[in-house]
Design goal:
Blueprint (H helix, E strand, L loop, with lengths): L9 H4 L21 H7 L2 H9 L23 E5 H6 L15 E2 L13 E2 L2 E2 L1 E4 L2 E2 L15 E8 L3 H4 L6 E7 L9 E7 L3 E13 L2 E11 L9 E13 L3 E14 L6 E2 L10 E4 L25 E16 L4 E21 L12 E28 L2 E30 L23 E17 L2 E17 L5 E17 L5 E12 L15 E12 L7 E14 L15 E16 L2 E13 L12 E9 L9 E10 L2 E7 L2 E8 L2 E12 L2 E8 L7 E5 L3 E4 L4 E9 L1
Parallel strand pairs: 5-8
Antiparallel strand pairs: 1-7, 2-3, 3-4, 5-6, 7-8, 9-10, 9-36, 10-11, 11-12, 12-13, 13-16, 14-35, 15-31, 16-17, 17-18, 18-19, 19-20, 20-21, 21-22, 22-23, 23-24, 24-25, 25-26, 26-27, 27-28, 28-29, 29-32, 30-31, 32-33, 33-36, 34-35
Protein name: Iron complex outermembrane receptor protein
Organism: Rhodothalassium salexigens DSM 2132
Main location: membrane
Length: 726
């Protein structure tokens, strides 16, 4: 078990895929401010940018600041709803497949959750600027139909969001009530018995009130036998909006019924018999006979397995312009979730998990998990000048209270299942009794953060300074009512400098820090473990030729994470001495442009990773690349027609078992190239689309782990959609 991102008009396309989120768009003047005076005072390059790049500013985006993308001193990638619709994305992981430096489907096809990595590190998932997932398998999965866009803030983000990994975060923006929103009703039919009805209904209630209701009902199978993916989700919202004030109340109710597609297929019948996987030493494959476990094989038990989740989330988002230059804004949320998780698999024994005939001992696992979150992030924003310096400064306070509880039961070595010809049954009857669950530890985490950020302009120079202080308290209560508490605090800093040339080139350099608490006690000092600390240096170029719908970014970065377990510890000694370091160095290139009715997008990234043991990060490819081309005629007989296609390459990845600081086994999973296509036509209010992902139905493995299992990648998905817009 493990815990781990309608054809656009010429102007709006310029803001994709890096830009269309408000925080990173060119900033239009405040409608309540004296527009003529501000325009006259603006530099010429800023005025050109305002003409070329337009968009609606979001106050709840990943950057927490309305800074134009060409002035942001770090990397931010954006995938808008229309973009990921065109590419056929069905999950949050899918939306990230065309983003440089991000692996969306790290563990292949998944029905249980999203497990993205950013710059080699696990990425926390946020919604409208507040974290939404905590712990393992105690939350519901987001559905992409309810999202306006998905944002990836790359590199350490503790100066904005507090504790987290140094790779970055994924922030999804919700569809909220407001003026000028289009209504739609959609019907989807797909392969593997996928049927879905969805709707997005909007109403102007008068008196500055707007209402919106977004919902789906889905009944669907999957590429794994017996695994379904059913869902009923509703998200109503109501907004009060005037020239200076906007307040939105939103609720989301999710009920998902399904099973887990991750079957932990034994290496003996997958990687050991595949020309896509290299396994060493050969002893790992001692029982391989050439028989292959098919990708759709189900190693659970239909009478036992389930992964049913439900949650209720209520959010309040708002802002008020106190003056033309001072704004108060914030987000508050309450969320409660529960999961009922049961799974059977072939057990992990430390050696080959099945014999030559394919038989392996079974493990049965039950988990009843709950989570509860209350969170708020409130900030004040000022725009002012000090001599020749222009400032956009915001300062805020963030508080979060999260409680998780996980009651479990597990039985190992219960009967035998044949991985090649499974016959189900013989489920331990006592595991079906709720009384069999062991009362797991209840954990409560409270986080308080104070932060300040200042974007400073001087002519063509842009500087950004950020500082945040966090205090984190974690309390654990076990089944005997024994309590342990751990307090951590950290100050995080970020700084960046950028220069805007008049021909569109903007070089920049930045530094950022992260921290992530580690729960436990040092085996040598008996002191609480120190938080992991991350530091990143980044330099890059942003290029936007004036007056053109072209945008290119290049970023080079070096991330170092410290306070990792000491790699030199012996097996019989405490391994928590925290003298280890991990490092990631890399480069990312993202480019997009438009020529007449054609749009083009290309991305590439290279990562050089090294963990505390001196080996590559598990399951993180060194190379990734993708490209998407779309044609959408705007006039003539083909007006309304659109066609698109893309290729995405995920390079080879490795998994290494290290014993006593020495690599003992390594599994290399080859890279893969997959293709996606779109065909669509819109006539008046009707729209028909056909999406195919992995169009050649290629069988491949997302990764194979040295512990002894492989994860099949997503096979071909076909979805036909009929939409009515009004």
């Amino acid at each position: 078990m493990y815990s781990r991102p309608l054809a656009a008009s010429a102007l709006s396309l310029l803001s994709t895929p890096l830009l269309l989120s408000a925080p990173v768009l060119a900033q239009s003047p405040d409608p309540s401010a004296p527009t003529a005076d501000r325009s006259a005072a603006a530099p010429a390059d800023q005025m050109v940018e305002e003409i070329v790049v337009t968009g609606t500013l979001s106050r709840y985006g990943a950057a927490k600041a309305a800074v134009p993308i060409v002035e942001a001193v770090r990397s931010i990638s954006i995938e808008t709803e229309q973009q990921f619709r065109d590419k056929g994305a069905l999950t949050l992981d899918d939306t990230l497949n065309y983003t440089a430096g991000v692996v969306g489907d790290t563990f292949g096809f998944s029905s249980r959750g999203d497990f993205p990595t950013v710059r080699g590190f696990d990425a926390a998932e946020y919604r409208d600027g507040l974290q939404v997932l905590f712990g393992s398998y105690n939350n519901t999965r987001s559905d992409v139909y309810f999202l306006d866009q998905v944002e990836v803030l790359k590199g350490p983000a503790s100066v904005l969001y507090g504790k987290g990994t140094p790779g970055g975060i994924v922030n999804a923006i919700s569809k909220l009530a407001g003026p000028d929103e289009e209504n739609e009703l959609l019907v989807d039919i797909g392969n593997r018995d996928r049927y879905q009805v969805s709707g997005d209904l909007n109403a102007d209630l008068g008196n500055n009130l707007y209402a919106r209701l977004v919902g789906i009902y889905r009944n669907s199978g999957s590429q794994v036998d017996f695994v379904h993916d059913d869902a009923l989700i509703f998200m109503p919202s109501i907004t009060y909006e005037t020239a200076r004030t906007s307040i939105t109340a939103m609720a989301e109710v999710i009920d998902r019924d399904g099973d887990t597609a991750h079957q932990f297929l034994p290496l003996t019948g997958t990687g050991c018999v595949s020309d896509q996987v290299t396994v060493s030493p050969a002893a790992f494959c001692a029982n391989a006979t050439g028989q292959r476990i098919e990708d759709d094989t189900y190693l659970g038990d239909p009478g036992f397995n389930r992964y049913d989740t439900n949650s209720t989330m209520v959010s309040l988002l708002g802002h008020h312009d106190i003056t033309d230059w001072v704004t108060l804004e914030g987000v508050a949320r309450y969320k409660k979730g529960r999961s009922d998780y049961r799974q059977a698999w072939i057990g992990f024994t430390g050696g080959p998990r099945i014999d030559a005939q394919g038989n392996g001992a079974r493990t049965f696992y039950v988990s009843d998990s709950e989570s509860e979150q209350a969170a708020v992030d409130v900030r004040a924003r000022w725009q002012f000048e000090t001599g020749p310096l222009r400032h956009e400064l915001f300062t805020g306070i963030a508080y979060q209270h999260v409680q998780t509880d996980n009651d479990t039961a597990i039985q190992r070595g219960v009967g035998v299942l044949n991985a090649y010809r499974p016959v189900y049954g013989n489920v331990p009857a006592d595991l079906l009794d709720p009384a069999a669950l062991a009362d797991g530890p209840e954990q409560t985490a409270q986080d308080l953060g104070l932060y300040v950020n200042n974007q400073i302009s001087l002519g063509r120079w842009r500087a950004n300074l950020g500082l945040r202080y966090d205090d984190t308290e974690t309390r654990t209560v076990d089944a005997t009512d024994a309590r342990t508490e751990q307090d951590d605090s950290a100050a995080s800093f970020s700084a960046g400098l950028l220069y805007k040339f008049d021909f569109g080139l903007s070089p920049y350099a930045s530094f950022a820090e992260s921290f992530n608490p580690v729960i436990g006690t040092d085996g040598l000092t008996a002191e609480p473990l120190k938080p992991r600390e991350g530091r990143q240096w980044e330099v890059g170029l942003k290029y936007q030729p004036p007056g053109t719908p072209t945008f290119i970014t290049v970023a080079l970065f070096d991330i170092k994470e410290s306070n990792l377990p000491n790699p030199s510890s012996l097996i019989d000694q405490p391994d928590s001495q925290q003298e280890g370091d991990g490092r990631v160095r890399g480069v990312e290139i993202e480019a997009l442009t438009r020529w007449r009715d054609w749009s083009f997008e290309a991305n590439y990234s290279y990562l050089d990773t090294e963990n505390a043991d001196g080996v590559d990060f598990d399951s993180v490819p060194s190379n990734q690349a993708s490209a998407w081309v779309q044609y959408a005629p705007s006039a003539g007989l083909l007006d309304g027609f659109r066609v698109g296609g893309g290729l995405r390459y995920q390079g080879e990845n490795r998994s290494t078992a290290v014993v006593g600081g020495v690599p003992a086994a390594e599994i290399v999973t080859d890279g893969v190239v997959l293709g996606d296509i779109l065909v669509g036509y819109r006539y008046r209010q009707w729209d028909v689309t056909l999406n195919m992902r992995n169009v050649t139905d290629k069988s491949y493995y997302g990764t194979c782990l040295a512990r002894g299992d492989c994860f099949p990648g997503e096979r071909r998905t076909i979805v036909a959609r009929l939409g009515y817009h009004f």
